[in-house]
Structure formats: C-alpha cells, structure tokens
Amino acid sequence: MFTCCGVADAQQSVGLVLSGGGAKGIAHIGVIQALEENDIPIDYIAGTSMGAIVGGFYASGYTPAEMMQLIESKGFRYWSTGEIDPSLVYYYAKDDPTPRLATVNVNFRDSSATKSILPSSIINPLPMNFEFMNLFAAYSAQCGDDFDKLFVPFRCVTSDVYNKHKIVCRSGSLGDAIRASMSFPIVFEPIEMDGVLVYDGGIYDNFPVDVMREDFAPDIMIGVDVSSPDAKPNINDLFSQVEDMIIQNNDYSLPADEGIKLRIHLEEFSLLDFEACRRIYKIGYDYAMSMMDSIKSRVTARVPAETRNLRRAVFKSKTPYVEFDSVKVHGAAPSQNAFIKYMFTNGRTDTFGLAQAKDAYYRAISPGKLRNLVPHAVFNDSTGTFTLDLRADIKNNFNVGVGGYISSSTNSMLFLSAGYNTLSFNSLNSDINGWVGQNYLAGALNLRLSMKSSIPSYLKLQAVISRHKMYDNDRIFYDSGSTLVTSSEAFARLRYGMAAGRSGKVELDLGVGRLSSRFYKDLIVSADNRDRLTNVLGQLRLHYAYNTLNDVLYPTSGMLIRATLDGVYGNECYYPL
Question: How far apart are CA 255 and CA 265, in angstroms?
C-alpha cells in the first residue's frame, strides 16, 4: 500500500502549508524546488491566495521549473496585470480612438443599473477569466472535481465577507477555487460561488495550518510564511494600506510538535511585484536550503526523484485534452446570448479546442461592449468532451464620456461624447462627439452597422463639422487679440470595412468635403473684410491596416502597417474682398 507520493504507509506523511502574500508567494516555488532536490515528500498541500496558486499548480502536476516558466512568460504578465495582449486584440472590432478619459454607462429605465466611472477592480478581470480556465480545466476534469484525486491532495481557502467566515475549498471547479482564494479586494474582482461573492482567503486565514490539520492530519507539517509583518501603514504604498485594512488578525503559528515553520522575509517586495519573480524565487530557495538540515532532522521520509517523476508522468498522461463540443451562454438577453455563442461556434457543429476558444473569447471582448465574460469548461464523463459555459455581463447601451486636454496655448479644449451601442448579429455603434475650446469647435457623428457575413464586415457613416481660429496673440484660456484666420471644414465619409485576420482590416470608402478659410491678406489686420478660399474635395480610397501596437499614443511593442490607394478630386476657389 502506498501514499500519494509512492512511499510506504509506515513512513511519515508530510503536509506543506503555503501562506498568501501576493508576488512574495513566488518564494514558495523556490522552497518546493529545494524540498524536491533533497527528496523530501509532499503528501498534502494547502494554501491561501498566492499560496493557493502555487499549491494548485503543484497539485496539478506542475514542476517548479514549469511554474517559473509560466510566471516568467509574457502571458502571465498580461493576465496578472489585467492588460490584454495586443496580439490577441481583434483589430477589426476596435473603435477609432477618442480623447475620452472617463465613461459612464447609463440605463434610462433603471437608474440603479447605471455604472460608475470607477472600475469594479484595479486589475481588469477579462484576461484572467480565460486563463484560469485554460490552466486548470483539464485537471479539474481529471480529478472529477475532487481535490483529493489530484497529483497531490489539495485544499485552498477563500472568504465569504457577507457571512464573515472562511470557506475551505475541497471540491468543485479547481480554477474557480484558486481564483477565489487570490481575489484580493479592490485589486482583483471577486467571483461568485454558490450565490455568494467570495474573496481572498487571507482575510480570515492566511496560513491554513488548521485546514491541513483537520483535513489531512499529516504526521508532520512544513509551513512557509511569506506574509508581511504587522507594521504601520505606509502613506506612499496604497496596497499596503488596503492590506492592513482588510486582512484580519491571522494566526501564523505552527506548533513545534506538529512541524517546522519557514519564515521568509520579503518586506522589500510589494503585493504585485511579479517582475522580481526570479529574485523572490531564489530567496525562497536559498532560505529553504539553509534550513535543510533542520528539515531533514524532522522529516525522515524520502521519495527518490525517479519515483516522483514517474508518478507525475503517469498523472499527466491521464490528463484529458480540453475539447469543446457545445457552447452555452447566459446572463444577457436571448439575442445577445445567441450572438456570443455564434462568435465561438461560427455556425459549425464540430468540436474545437482551447486555442480556438481563446481566439473567439478575445474577439468577443475586443469591441468593449462586455463588462465581464466568465468561461467555464464543464466536463462530460460520457463523451470525454467539454461544454463551454459562458456567463456574460453586457454594458448598458447608452454611455456618456468626457475628456480633453490642457496645453500652454489656446489649443486647450474639452471633449464630450454620447453613444448608443448594441450587441447582436447586426449590431449598431453610434456616437456624437463634440470638441469645445477657445480656438476650436467641432462636432462628429459616427454610425457603424456590423453585419452578419462569412467574413465579418461593417458599413460606417461618418460626418464631421469644425471651425478653427488663429489669433495674432497666443494666450491661454481667453482671446485678447484679433482673429487672423478662421478655417471651417465639413466632410462626410461612407465606408465599407472587413476583417483581414486578427490584426488587420481592409476598408473601401467614399468621402466628400468642403473646406473654407477666411483671412486677412498678408495677415495684416487693415479692415473688417477678409479674403475667402474654398475647396471642394472628393476621395475614393482603398485602405489596409495591420496593427499590433500596445498603446495608441506611446507604444513600446508591436507594429503598425498601413497601405492606401486613393484617388482625389479637388476644386479650389479664391474670393478676394
């Protein structure tokens, strides 16, 4: 008879307890590496927050090297910070950029449903939603949602702040349990479990020694504590202030007769200091190695690397491939649910994998009409395939925005916008924008109708009217001089566009415009009358754009390629006065 690590029952069973601590929890990986190198078994594992993530990875068969490879990857950097990888953005579906700084979604039927300009969390949850399903769905299916049947039996802790108690996760969706355990308030959006919003387990139990004791009762425990010590809040560190307000009086003790505690000091690192992952890992590894003689004196059991590696290989060989045979969408109106489903299936009936699901997921969120989209992979024992279950939270149709900029000249202006957007097979995007400044006034109307077609396409109408003044004096906020030039523009454009892969689009458009300028000859103010110059223009344009830039104004990665073929007609008339 054997324990989970292939060691005879007569040997000690060892439980590993991992505390929360944000990025500081990467030190747990270094500790695990040190334990494995010295053949110390890990028969059970329990963790909170980042300890739950590391514990969940290890319980799913990840090696320390694989965990570090994941944490150092570009993908982890994106989803842990809430940034969407530019290479995954569906460029065709993105709206043209505007100077809008803040937006409010408005519900005229129910004022209580109007959403604040403040986000529900600092970190955008959308990239994280998909990644947790991607990382853990297969292992959740493999263990039948029973955490005792993972590579290493596993527990994690989350918090029910409504009923003021912790929740020990022993079964269910592995990804949800781990995601809930690390959902630090304000920083990460909470998830719903059994009808209750749940948060970071560290609120009530940041060092789950009691969970390990009660659920597994190992012969000996190794506890790793990377939490921040109690200290006065730092006025320059918002996260430390929030942490001090939220985390309750936790018990970080591990009785000497029950095991050995490793207290790793990582005060120099912050909650989200993931860029320092390699340094944090090494600190954890070095500290565990410095304590190895003490650990070996207490832990007499050993598991050879060959035995552990063989067990891990056998476990991974039984992990199912995630293949979806159906899609279910709920949370929105029936027509909206049907449209989101179509984006994942495209009308086909064959199965698809995680790569195709990821492509469709980012296509769905690229237009910015979804407040949240939460995917779950539901395993079907009889078929060996999964159902992709999606819970959608759609933004209100109406929105208002404000923005603008202040400069050291008369160019300062205020930007206002109002829009109405729908989500359906033939969705409508419409907005009215206005620019108001001392020397510039403008208004723009945009109407975009997205059409259901084999290649996604849209028809867009754009109309703009503007007036620009130039003065003989350039002052801030007020006009103290004469208007030398007044330039007025009006144009309209009808555009047909279609997607060209994930990062490209092709557009064919017809535009007409009229430009009019009134000015003093030789720019000398000598009379009230000014000369006038008008231009009537027409344009037919074929345009291709490929864009993977990570920012509109100040990109640091990606590329922008544009190719345009156009024909222009113009007629100029000069009227001296």
Answer: 20
